Amino acid sequence: MATNLVPQVMNALEATNFYFKRAVKLLGLDSKVERSLLIPFREIKVECTIPKDDGTLASYIGFRVQHDNSRGQMKGGIRYHPEVELNEVNALAQLMTWKSAVANIPYGGAKGGIGCNPRDLSPTELERLTRVFTQKIHDVIGPHLDIPAPDMGTNAQTMAWILDEYSKFHGYTPAVVTGKPVDLGGSLGREAATGRGVLYATEALLKDHNLSIRGQTFVVQGFGNVGSWASKLIHEKGGKIKAVSDVTGAIKNNSGIDITALNEHVRMTGGVKGFEGANPLDAAALLAEDCDVLIPAALGGVINGETAKDVSAKFIVEAANHPTDPVADEILAKRGVIILPDIYANCGGVTVSYFEWVQNIQGFPWEEEKVNTNLKKYMEKAYLSIKSTCQTHNCSHRMGAFSLGVGRVAKATLLRGWEA
Ligand SMILES: NC(=O)c1ccc[n+]([C@@H]2O[C@H](COP(=O)([O-])OP(=O)(O)OC[C@H]3O[C@@H](n4cnc5c(N)ncnc54)[C@H](O)[C@@H]3O)[C@@H](O)[C@H]2O)c1
């Protein structure tokens, strides 16, 4: 496609719609199906008023957007963030629909949140807010309707409160949420799942190019949950992690960073800065570091029209959501850089969430090994399906993944029919 057809600045939401529309074209879907896929199944907006610890009242707005349920119950995170608003929640819910379909798990997409700053709220205020929000939406969520999970600003404790509040209305129901504490039915392996999925996705990509993790060099931006787990697992497989960054700074060691020692340093100091087994690196230069595989695992939009030209990696594995904007996507494609897109590369988390739900429904917890073995199978299968879609439509991995996801949802929608 010509560059002049790509708008120069696009946020994550606009980019999702942009790729969706391209997928619709590649698949040859008619405009009625396109419209039906785009319009959310249900949008919910609720008032959540709570007494604060000092006795005053505070009101917040909670959202839940249920985008599509043609392939199964809807699934998606709940975020607590000051900028949560309906349009963004809508786009994120849509993205969850395509992501679940790419992973081939029997879920549709949803997303929700409360417009609040969780750092300004005490634990008791957060608990009250979560319970009020659950009271307002309990009749439209559930194990066979819509299953929330943690996202930005929420965690396993938030899920435990939702589980408890929901269970007051419906009886004990651990399958109403995923990402909950293991003691309440959470899955072993869930914490590492997104990073482990990044490892399996990278292995599948490299295998396709007759390469393996051992012998390749890696640069990882972001050393939080996803980045640190991906780094640890890649390091254990013999990959050489040359450079890593987080919000405290960046570090580099051409002989490879000892990730076990770095994890210990981060645990003690709170960041990668000052790690003795590596040299400091200008954080702005990290993305341009010479390596085979670049793994952005922090923020959206970091690989853009400005930074893309300096990227020297042969492969980019998008562990973060939307790290590459569409302008950069084009620049990199022209240079032959292969990108594994976020809707595939970071779907390990939602896949193990699905395994958690299965274990809850069965009332039968799995060993961690079973979780990891099944995750590997799902990631490998999804890679092969994306590759075959790329061959059918002669397109990039990103458009292969979007077309695969959108195509599966369109097929389910058409099979279910529209009879009223
Ligand atoms: N956690 C999951 O299961 C999951 C699933 C799918 C997608 N994701 C995506 O992966 C990304 C990371 O999520 P996470 O759960 O690891 O978050 P996290 O908060 O645990 O970690 C984020 C990391 O990014 C670092 N960071 C922040 N600003 C930075 C900057 N300017 N430069 C370099 N590093 C910076 C932080 O220091 C931290 O190490 C996000 O885009 C998230 O949406 C996460």
From TrEMBL:
Recorded catalytic reaction(s): these are: L-glutamate + NAD(+) + H2O = 2-oxoglutarate + NH4(+) + NADH + H(+); L-glutamate + NADP(+) + H2O = 2-oxoglutarate + NH4(+) + NADPH + H(+)
Q: Name one Pfam family in it.
A: ELFV_dehydrog
Task: Give the matching Gene3D superfamilies.
Answer: Leucine Dehydrogenase, chain A, domain 1, NAD(P)-binding Rossmann-like Domain
* Presence of the UniProt keyword Oxidoreductase in the record: yes
Binding-site list for substrate: 75, 99, 353
The annotated active site, in chain numbering, is 111 (proton donor)
Q: Which GO terms describe its biological process?
A: L-glutamate catabolic process
GO MF annotation terms: glutamate dehydrogenase (NAD+) activity; nucleotide binding
At which residues is there a site annotated Important for catalysis?
151
Q: List the SMART domains hit by this protein, alphabetically.
A: ELFV_dehydrog (SM00839)
InterPro entries in the record, alphabetically?
Aminoacid_DH-like_N_sf, Glu/Leu/Phe/Val/Trp_DH, Glu/Leu/Phe/Val/Trp_DH_C, Glu/Leu/Phe/Val/Trp_DH_dimer, Glu/Leu/Phe/Val_DH_AS, Glu_DH, NAD(P)-bd_dom_sf, NAD_bind_Glu_DH
Write out the GO cellular component annotations.
mitochondrion
Q: Where does NAD(+) bind?
A: 194, 225
**Stored PROSITE patterns:** GLFV_DEHYDROGENASE
Report keywords, A-Z. NAD, Nucleotide-binding, Oxidoreductase
Give every Glutamate/phenylalanine/leucine/valine/L-tryptophan dehydrogenase C-terminal domain span: 187-417
Protein family according to the UniProt entry: Belongs to the Glu/Leu/Phe/Val dehydrogenases family.
Protein name, as recorded: Glutamate dehydrogenase
The organism that produces this protein has a lineage beginning with: Eukaryota, Viridiplantae, Streptophyta, Embryophyta, Bryophyta
Q: Which gene encodes it?
A: LOC112285868
